[in-house]
Amino acid sequence: MSRPTHLQTCSSATDPDADLVRGLKCGDPESFRLLVELYQDPVYSYICRLIDDPAEAEDVTQDVFVKVFRKVAGFREECRFKTWLYRIATRESSNRRRWFSRHRWREVTESFGQGAASAYTERMPYRGRGPFEQAERREQREILNEALKQINPRFKQAVVLRDIAGFSYLEISNTLGISLGTVKSRILRGRAALKRQLMRHAPAIVPHATWQTE
What is the SS3 assignment for 137? Predict the structure, then answer.
């Protein structure tokens, strides 16, 4: 897909990750450790919602960071580093999803899947909440993830980037390589589809969805 001419760029001076990028380009091991510390969990969470399989999402996340490490020297800083990182994550997720659809016969063992999921769950605890609230929020997250599975992948990408990853419309435009108008359209249609799914699965949680107030 060619890069749309309308996409805006940003200089490295305005990128909060500029120092990190310089360290990565110099091959600094501490910079790579910081990269993983800052972005491993949010990138995994994003990928997991796109491909609906915790074990596969862990593999894709590892692939993403390997590609970042190998390709960062060629990163021309025409956009924010975070945008470039999520662009790679989106592409790798799409590639894995297409591959998986062609190899549906391949089964991941139950124990492996649970291990991959629990490994990441342990790194993302619910801090400062009691066990009952933790259980309630975990159930809501599972309902949300189940509803997201039913949405068109293109709409899902935009909704997850906006409402879960917290990207601006411009960042989504640059990440997905689409116009701002298309971003807004996909988010609008994705939210509507998500609302319909949530109403089917758990109508009680829909009024609490913050994206409805925008």
Answer: helix
Q: Is residue 172 within 8 Å of residue 90, measured between CB atoms?
A: no
Cα distances (angstroms) measured from residue 144 to each of 44, 71, 113, 164, 170: 16, 34, 19, 11, 25
CATH code for the domain defined by 10-124 = 1.10.1740.10
Question: What one-letter code names the amino acid at 114?
Answer: Q
First to last CA, the chain: 31
Chain length of the chain: 214
55: tokens are 């074990």
pLDDT tens digits, 1-59: 334 444 444 444 588 999 999 999 998 999 999 999 999 999 999 999 898 788 888 99
Architecture of the domain delimited by 130-214: Orthogonal Bundle (1.10)
